[in-house]
Amino acid sequence: MKRNVPLMIAMLGGLIMMIQYFIPHQASQDVFDYYTEWAPLVGSFALILGVGSITRVHVHKIRAKAPNWPFSLAVLIPLYLIPLFAFFLPASIGGGTENPSLFDFMYSRVQIPIQATMFSMLAFYIASAAFRAFRAKSALATVLLVTAVIVMLAQVPIGDLLGRWLPDTGLWILRFPNLAAKRAIELGVGFGMLATCLKIIFGVERGWLGGAGE
Amino acid sequence: MNNWERFLNIDRRWIYLLIAIVVIVPFFIRMGLPVVPTQEVRSVYDLVDSLGPDDAIFIGWDFDPGTEAENQPMGVAVLRHAFARHVPVFVTAYWPLAQGLAEMGLASVFDTRVPGNFVYVPWAEWESVRAAGYAGRDSLESAWEAAGNSLPEGARGWVFEGVDLANLGYLPYFSLVILGMGTSIANQYPTDAYGNNLHDMPILQAHKNLREVDLAVTLAGSTACMSWVVYGTSRVGLPVAFGVTAVMATDYFPYIQSGQIVGMMGGLRGAAEYEVLETEGGYTETTGKAYRGMDVQSLAHILIILLVILGNIAYFAGGFHKKTAMKNRR
Q1: I need a labelling partner for B172 at 20 to 30 A (CA). Which of A47, B116, B122, B324 fits?
Q2: ipTM score of the complex?
Q3: B293 and B159 part of one domain
């Protein structure tokens, strides 16, 4: 029961949405509209499940004083504090979501700079890694290296100054060899996704059940 | 340890310092290197340029703060272009954090301290004009100015919320929201991000679903942009243009060639190209942040290429390639 009911719901839902796509009738459109309206609502309830789950995991780590348990506090405190700032704190003492507010401060002065910094640091790591690891050790590695240099120069205006052939060659690499390789990969991924979807709909792939009923 | 080996094992902090220098210095010494627009960006620009007040576009803020440096200038450039041509704009957000970024993008276009910007008129502020009867954008602008409102010096024009702009904001499971907007935008978004009733807005009355929208520009740092193609283009024929990070741009060339997307702004370079086209088209006096950032990128790329070349010289001159070959033979 614990396994068969979710499997049946997945199968019915998948089949209905699949068949619906090919039926040009108002009843079919109504089914589609109904689904697209309630699916986000169901998804919103999944958020409650997610918050509950993450809380349980981290509370357990804190209680057990597991390695790096203070990081669990860094997860839980903002998780509950920020909604508190946004929805429960009176506006007179910095509550609400308007600017200025504590919520807005945490978002624009803490979260945005943190995320932007994390991504920006990639430039430093890439430079160091390129210096240490990007070697023309073989013919294939040399092709990769030369291609990378051309595309890198083609992406910046200094490449135009070195000669128009450079950005043109860079664009040619992106528009033709890159396109061909990407299309092959995308097709492979697409067929793989189709096969996985069919396996889920017909109950062959059951990993999403999370081991329920086993 | 010989000199080559010592060089190859240089403390990585020296490399970090070099990168920091080439990133910081161009902010003080402008090079103003020329940016030549590519066909991929020009296609997006030309499409927006062909639209007018009877058309509408979506701009999807589908990125989070990690890729703000690349994606935000694209959004700002397209917003400016659309507002200059009075093309109604719907703004959406794929992620919760993206809504704040969208508002920052709008705020930078509405900052009237900057010449060439637009003056934002919130929905509630022009209620009295609306009560007298809305009969098109031109008459609204005349009535608004007749009511004693005038454009500040240097401002390019008015942006009336509900006519020129609807900030729809974030909704969970955005792929399904795109799917639903194919039938009705107002069913998915009964109110906008500020709680205004969308059913009352002229922009919604003129463009009820994605079939009545002329372009969606999705600005993304992840595969979120694909949702617009899968659920917008393939389902209702919505023309879609991408504004993606430079590392992602290579993934989407097949979609341009197949005609599934109109064009693409790839990375900061793409945004800079759009800014150049806007300036050439007379929509802005000067180029923006992306164009300025190209000096930084040029120097950083040159530095990385030099490091790779020096690394290879040291590798071969130090005879390390022979050691690698011997190791491989063993």
Answers
A1: B122
A2: 0.84
A3: no
- How do residues A61-95 score in pLDDT, each as one tens digit? 999 999 999 999 999 999 999 999 988 998 888 88
The count of domains in chain B is 2
Residues B139-197: pLDDT tens digits? 999 999 999 999 998 899 999 999 999 999 998 888 889 988 998 999 899 999 999 99
Tell me which residue range forms the domain holding B6.
Answer: 1-30+288-330
A98 touches chain B (CB under 8 A): no
Residues of B in contact with A152 (CB under 8 A): 301, 304-305
Return the biggest CA–CA distance within chain A.
Answer: 69
Give the distance from residue B134's alpha carbon to the nearest chain A alpha carbon, in angstroms.
Answer: 30
* Rg of chain A over all Cα atoms, to the nearest angstrom: 26
A60: which residues sit within 8 A by CB, 6+ positions away?
A: A66
Q: Is the peptide bond before A67 cis (omega within 30 degrees of 0)?
A: no
The answer to whether the beta carbons of residues B243 and B217 sit under 8 Å apart is yes
- Name residue A68's amino acid: N
Let me know whether B9 and B42 are in one domain: no
**In this structure, are B5 and B98 located in the same domain?**
no
B48 in the same domain as B18? no
Both B35 and B154 in one domain: the answer is yes
| Helices marked H in A69-164 | 69-83, 102-105, 112-120, 122-133, 139-154, 157-162
Selected residues 149-208 of chain A with any CB under 8 Å from a CB in chain B: 149, 152-153, 155-158, 160-161, 167, 171, 174-175, 178-179, 182-183, 186
- B182 and B323 share one domain: no
Q: How far is B34 from chain A, CA to nearest CA, in Å? A: 6
The C-alpha of B287 sits at a distance from chain A's nearest C-alpha, in angstroms, of 15
